[in-house]
Design goal:
3 domains, homodimer, about 450 residues, about 35% helix, 5-stranded mixed beta sheet, Translation Initiation Factor IF3
């Protein structure tokens, strides 16, 4: 793109009714019609998958008493700089401070302790779609780094470690369906280094994609909590011999703002957004192409017929019969990312055809009206969007051989190099980017040449 | 019911996986699987109706700076005793206090002022499904009076008062569809007296039902805000001559907790919940009735066939093939309120039939398997639930002729009597109950006999 990615991104959000960042509290976004519509599609899709996998929908309180949040010391240390505190109710000071949830482990697990008595109460698998709050000290960026984060969080308790590990596998699959299946986003799954895991977890795995400017964006995380929280919140169960054990836990969540940011950015082009059909607020726009008044009625009759037939199939359709020239309409709806445009003019009408234009490929087809299969075209569009985005993503994987090449490639995507795990060699690496993960593969250190492990490095959002 | 309604209600919530009120912050509920599932069904249904009516889904911040909340003096006076204040972020005091939204007028309307420039930007119609927070001083009661309230709120801005009035009519219809159509609840729509309107509104209308103990429960309210907020938030638009005008506004919302409380309470009976089919977490339970092991396989084959066929129709089915006696299973699923129970035993199998039992009427039918039309039965169940509940509701309308009769009937339902509008006659009336509305009808005062207006009085939740 000729335009800088940051400018393009801000223009997309503002011009397409996605979000408004002019609210008086900095870092707290207003989600507008098209943005929120897409997020709701994602949320419903994810919730249905989680419930089919045995998760119960729940809603836990947003306010967490200080003593609960302080129960797990590693956890609170990770969040204490970011917590919003409620200290006053009406005109009176509260007896104890209440945290506006930065995440819900400490809130939920006090209840899990009440619910888990015997092995028959397990597993506990719940999810909720809510906002969490973090008083960010870093610079905020719309949808990417906010002080109010709309997400879905899943939380579990199992009788055995094996079940917890199997759950992590299921969630990887569910999140992959959401990110790659629904949103056509290419992703990489990385286990975070120990120093970058979720506070209180045994380990954290992250699903991330690469933005057009080469920086990675973390879209979802999955935490193996082991028995860390169950021991401090005393979540136990009696096995069939009546012996007490602590439960094994996991927690996980994708942020919907980031999913939206990635969907807009990864697929977009110089003409604007290119939206995956399943989440697009308008899936098909119908445009009459009429220059003579005498043709208007018959063309509009045809357009209305197509509209009604598509609506019956549950497809979200808009008809643009405004006074603007067709070219101006094409421009608008292309920027909006509408997957399919269908044009009907007097000649098409005579031939019983319509012109169908794909947003993803620009392809223009003349299709007989009785052969119009929009659902089939949607799945071709999805396949193409997935393939195109994956190709770009694969081109952003680098394996440099020298420190100079390393410095050149960090910032353009995900870079794999060796590292000896010595702090002195971490310094030049971390000056260039962030260590996303430490793999188990061997590789000689890009700084000193000694034997080490392959790490993945990128500039991150 | 032999059991006291309050006891029955608490037992239903606890035993049916609806909510848990043992969280450490009093008045903040944990919504569990079945409760939250039903609320999600209601929310999706309502959101779809609002969006079909032209409302955009949105999400506005939960935190409102003190200066915004203070902008409208009547409004803040109505809420200041109930607002939770965030005063601290991380370890630092915030520069200005942030209110945890008690409602979103002041948050949204600062943005409306940016969005409304010309008449082409109007109408603005948005909705959001979120929690609001009120530090209640009154005693809380699960789902009915909470400190955290899950609701959907709609907000609008129109160029003319007429459009605002037409919108109020549309919302009355939409809410009636939700309450009476989806949830089969009988409702009465009352305009609140001026002293009981929403702070900042011209007037408020309320939709309410009657609970089994005779008290009314307000389920939703609709406010005509006139130009009250647009004048203080400076929400203007240029008409086609370039002249500036203030917009006309409305706001409205039902609370999902109260809808759930009413649905459980109004339809329930001594055996437990009776759930409207469209929101029931389990719509059909299939129970094999087998006493000999040799029959098991063939009966389970039939049950599996019915299950698969119902699932294909999008119906939520459970199969209870546990070791308990059939009677114990019936007891459990009846308490859970499952609309239809289908039993299959060896004899049914031979005849190609199943026994179908309706939860609402207790009716037992032997139905040939190839004639089983569950969707048709659901709509018969809905009709019956609506009719039964309406009958009870109508029996709770009173028109007493003496003050003694008045005192006897208040607390049993909605009581219509005359009132002269003098404060001294309000006293004995308000000792008995709350004035729900002042109608336009004439009626002589129940206290002093002078000419007056008919009012509606009830004990309220």
């Amino acid at each position: 793109m000729a335009e800088d990615f940051g400018e393009w991104y801000r223009r997309m959000l503002a011009d397409n009714n996605i979000v408004d960042d002019r609210y008086e509290v900095k870092g707290m976004l207003v989600y507008r019609g098209n943005g929120m519509f897409m997020i709701k599609q994602m949320a419903r899709y994810l919730e249905d998958l989680l419930e089919a996998d045995g998760h119960e929908p729940t809603l836990f309180p947003a306010l967490i008493p200080e003593n609960l949040l302080l129960t797990e010391s590693e956890h609170i240390a990770g969040f204490e700089d970011q917590v919003y505190w409620v200290t006053q109710g009406g005109k009176n000071a509260l007896e104890r401070k209440l945290a506006l949830r930065p995440t819900s482990e400490t809130c939920m697990y006090t209840m899990f302790a009440l619910w888990s008595r015997t092995h028959q109460d397990l597993p506990i698998k719940v999810h909720q779609t809510v906002c969490v709050y973090r008083c960010e000290t870093k610079q905020t960026r719309p949808l990417i780094r906010s002080r109010e984060i709309y997400w879905n969080e899943g939380h579990t308790a199992f009788a055995t470690r094996q079940e917890a590990l199997a759950n992590i596998e299921s969630i990887r699959e569910i999140y992959t369906k959401l990110l790659n299946g629904l949103l056509c986003l290419p992703i990489q799954i990385n286990e975070r280094p120990q120093w970058d895991k979720f506070p209180g977890a045994e380990y954290t795995i992250a699903l991330e994609t690469i933005m057009p400017d080469g920086r990675t964006l973390q879209l979802a995380t999955i935490h193996n909590l082991g028995q860390h929280f169950s021991k401090v919140f005393n979540i136990q169960f009696d096995d069939d011999k009546g012996e007490k054990h602590y439960v094994w836990q996991t927690s996980y969540g994708p942020g919907f703002g980031r999913l939206l940011a990635a969907t807009i950015s990864v697929h977009g082009d110089e003409r604007g957004m290119v939206l995956p059909p399943k989440v697009a607020p308008v899936q098909v726009v119908l445009i009459p192409v009429v220059y003579k008044d005498s043709d208007k009625e018959s063309v509009m009759g045809c357009i209305t017929g197509i509209r009604d037939s598509l609506k019956k199939q549950g497809i979200r359709v808009a008809v643009d019969d405004g006074p603007e020239r067709p070219g101006a309409k094409y421009f608008l709806w292309e920027q909006r990312g509408v997957p399919l445009r269908i044009e009907v003019g007097p000649r098409d009408l005579k031939e019983g055809k319509a012109v169908v234009v794909r947003r993803d490929s620009g392809e223009k087809l003349s299709v007989p009206l009785d052969k119009l299969d929009v659902q089939a075209m949607f799945s071709q569009i999805e396949d193409n969007m997935r393939t195109k985005a994956q190709k770009k993503f694969d081109e952003c994987q680098f394996m440099p051989q020298t420190l100079g090449q390393f410095r050149d490639s960090v910032g353009k995507g995900i870079v794999s190099v060796g590292w000896c795990e010595k702090p002195e060699c971490a310094k030049p690496i971390e000056e260039a980017g962030t260590i996303l993960s430490l793999t188990k593969e061997s590789g000689s250190c890009i700084v000193c040449g000694r034997a080490g492990k392959v790490i993945k490095v990128a500039k991150t959002y």
